[in-house]
Amino acid sequence: MTGADNRVAADVRALIADLLPLLAPHAMLDADTGLLVLPVGTAHADISLDSITATCAATPAHTWPTRVQLWLAEKAAEVTAALAEREGYGPVEQLLRAQVTPRLPDGERERLMCTPYGDLLDIVIVLDHPNGGWLTRERAEQLAVTDPGTRALANTLPAELSACTVTDRQLTTGGPVRVIGRPGSPYVTSALLDIERFLPGPCPSGLLIALPRYSEILLHPVHPASFRSAARALADLARRTYADANDPCSDRLLWWAQGSLYALDFSRLTRRPRVPRPLRALIH
């Protein structure tokens, strides 16, 4: 931040501090974080000043008091609406869930409450309510949701995953495939966050994983001798399941090995799996 930017930010904070007693007497400016803290029932919303600071930086200084006044009124109205919304939801923090998804576009990732899971997937926080859905950063701020990531994981891993069914089936090649599912649940893909509890046994060469539906995942332990045929059979099963799903997630295969996830792609001409370089020693 430049010296001019620092001066704008300081002037905007001073304006907000002057107007708070009139427009939002229960609010305060946190000197340590630089955030506007507005009470929302028994919780509080921490609101960044970045947007109003950027607005003021791009406009003449004589317009700042009006702009800050309008911004404060808007934020106070949002908090009032959020309080009514929280009351309608009930205990919001108990409704938070974690959902593993394919990697989202950068713009979506910036908008949502999410975090990367390796290089290929994201963990998105969901508000598990008919009026909920993926939780945006703005909505989490408005609803004054505290520590959403920790709460979402705590709500998902024990309760949601313990209700999943585990079924062992056969691929068309004769190899085993473990199906983990829970009809209607959009959180089964989060089993990846605790995948070791679902292993069908020792997997020294790792595990092939498909996420064709949010309510179902497929696991196949890698065996070097049958790796290529089994990978093709699992990929075919994943594509069929994905195409028929009403909750499609991904038609790609992943290879879990050595504590990491790798994409497993196939040659278009020969349909031979392209083994990731770090994993080649596992099947040779």
Question: Into which percent range does the helicity of residues fall?
Answer: 25-40%
Structural Rg: 24 Å
Low-confidence stretches: none
Count of all domains: 3
SS elements, strand count = 14
Q: What percent of residues are in strands?
A: 25-35%
Helix tally?
7
Please specify the SSE layout and strand pairing.
Elements (H helix, E strand, L loop, with lengths): L2 H21 L4 E2 L6 E5 L2 E5 L2 H8 L6 H26 L6 E7 L3 H6 L2 E4 L3 E7 L5 E2 L2 H6 L5 H15 L2 E6 L5 E6 L25 E7 L2 E6 L5 H18 L8 E5 L2 E7 L6 E2 L10
Antiparallel strand pairs: 1-2, 2-3, 4-6, 5-6, 6-7, 8-9, 9-11, 10-11, 10-12, 12-13, 13-14
Helix pairs in contact: 1-2, 1-3
Plain-language structure description:
The structure is a single chain. The protein is of the alpha+beta class and 284 residues long. It has three domains: 3-89, no CATH class; 92-160, no CATH class; 163-282, no CATH class. The chain has helices at 3-23, 50-57, 64-89, 106-111, 137-142, 148-162, 227-244, and strands at 28-29, 36-40, 43-47, 96-102, 114-117, 121-127, 133-134, 165-170, 176-181, 207-213, 216-221, 253-257, 260-266, 273-274. The strands form three sheets. A seven-stranded antiparallel sheet has the order 8-9-11-10-12-13-14, with helices on one face. A hairpin with a 6-residue loop joins β13 and β14 (273-274).
